[in-house]
Design a protein that fits this description.
Layout lengths: L2 H4 L4 H4 L7 E4 L6 E3 L13 E3 L6 E3 L6 E4 L8
Parallel strand pairs: 1-5
Antiparallel strand pairs: 2-3, 4-5
Length: 77
């Protein structure tokens, strides 16, 4: 058995590809749109409004960014 076969993969190699795309949000970030303001040009797709307050989390249908609402729920009218 070679040295590379005995070495376990690093945590970064085991992590799912979208793990770094989890975005925590608060009430100041609402209404939620994706892509977020300031996103690099290469990461842009058509802007969509996402409802993160109903379930506390939502995933963008274009880029699979996962948003989690961590703040206090806004007051409804």
């Amino acid at each position: 058995m070679s040295e590379t076969e005995r070495t376990p993969p690093s945590a970064a190699q085991e992590a799912p590809a979208d793990a770094e795309r989890v975005v925590p949000l608060g009430a100041a970030d609402l209404p939620l749109t994706c892509p977020r303001p300031g996103a690099p040009l290469w990461a842009r797709h058509p802007r969509v409004f996402l409802d993160v307050t109903t379930t506390g989390e939502v995933t963008c249908p274009y880029c699979s960014a996962h948003y989690i609402f961590t703040g206090e729920a806004p007051k409804r009218h």
